[in-house]
Amino acid sequence: MLNSRPTVRSTLKALLYxxxxxxxxxxxxxxxxLEAFAMGFYRHYNFYLNQIGSLSLANFQxxxxxxxxxxxxxxxxxxxxxVVPVSIGLALLLALSLHHARHFAKLLQTIYFLxxxxxxxxxxxxxxxxxxxxxxxxxxxxxxxxxxxxxxxNDPRYSxxxxxxxxxxxxxxxxxxxxxASLQQIDRRYYLxxxxxxxxxxxQFTNVTWPLLTPMILLVSINAVIVNLKVFDQVYALFNGSxxxxxxxxxxxxxLYQKFYVEDQPTIAAACGIVLFGITVGLTLGTLWVLRRHxxxxxxxxxx
Amino acid sequence: xxxTSSPLPATGVVPILTRCARFLRGALLLISALTMLxxxxxxxxxxxxxxxxxxxxxxxxxxxxxxxxxxxxQAAPFGRYYLNSIIVALxxxxxxxxxxxxxxxxxxxxxxxxxxxxxxxxxxxMMVPGExxxxxxxxxxxxxxxxxxxxxxxxxxxASVFMMFTLHQAFAAQPRTTYYAARLxxxxxxxxxxxxxxxxxxTVITAVGILQLIxxxxxxxxxxxxxxxxxxxxxxxxxLTFSSDIGTNYPLLMASTVLxxxxxxxxxLFVQKNLILGISQVKWHEKSH
Lengths: 304, 289
Description:
heterodimer; A: mainly alpha; MetI-like fold; two-stranded antiparallel ribbon; 12 helices; 70% helix; globular; B: mainly alpha; 13 helices
């Protein structure tokens, strides 16, 4: 029962309840985590026979000097800078508008959230058609405003932009939900008090909404950075199993996939995974640190 | 609603500025809603064109070619892909719900040695990106000879710390008095869990279950690496294979895309209230597929 002290008997009983989750986590999360870290340091490793040559930093040195890895890092960075601010900014604007909308708010929500439940592969295939040079919808629009058609998916200058557009479109709904939810959590009495003090809508926004929303915006942004750091499905599907023209859409995750699955270099892929993991943990801890420092309430939401 | 509906109504007409703002807001909402919808509309629209259709949207509309769906269905083993997706999604979700409910119950209602340490150790794994685990997991699954079996697609995903944590928060918020009352009436822990605690928390359980169903249905990278044969491909993989086979026959391609996304859209339209509630309450961070 509750509030009773733990005994050997109660511990055994509780372990029976936890066992299924624990066994699978041990086998497929804890153990591979250790193994992944070790694998990043293996040299002359035979993946299939599990023969380890020696331990060294060679894989990380290889990554440091590898032009493809540098390209992947650069592309991922540009991709994140292209997606996250636009997606969060638009989501904020739309969440605020939805929050004040009097009519059709439910219907609009349903529409915005549709891409969330749609397979990223299916989405990428539709966009592949919209982007296609001869009969794509986007070039049709460009023709209307008298611009020269763009070969979105085969021109290295535009293919990363195409990926950015698809991912903004795909991720907008989630950011709207999260921001809208925290907007709805703001106590109405703050607004009533502000109105009694004679604050207009803009003043209410800058003095009530914005400060109360900042922690959530930060959390949603960091979450978006972490998710987009790992973009893979959309690249694979948009460019039909390649990393875009002239590797223009080679991302870190795609690099990992290529090294592991195509080029059969699991140790280098593992090292790339460790780098990704390091960036994720760094970002997460950095966010938590900023939030603590500002004494923001966390409302039970934390970044991954 | 909040800002605009003031408790001290302005006398006379609504100020012109407020009206402008309201109009702009409406326009913004409408334009973005259309942008979100357009790819879906195009998808359905293109899927009923003549199979030789290649031109842009401006081509005059001729006839509804619903038979494209049948042609697409028969052109690739979509029946098999569907079956695989349904088996994998249902098995994974059920497995996760069972393991998470059991563990969340133990962590919230039972007292035992090492409770906090174990719980925190599990929570830390939520920070680990699933992709880091992909390579060693492939090794483990090869050693078990599970590659190219349903087991590889299901078993590693039947434990979700994210789901356990969400249910933990819900179960912890449950008033203790129900538990005491049930125990005093002679119910065992097991009976209390399945007869009272689970039914009382069905909203959050449904929400996390559906979130999981969506992410499993749409999973791509994991099944891409863990399967090599057509026999085990799930819908997203099957769709991509089909799309490379078929080239630029857009009507058939779009018909098959509609076939892939339709089930989830229908489920979504039925449970959307629940789902949105779930997403906004729940953290959106699990090891991604």
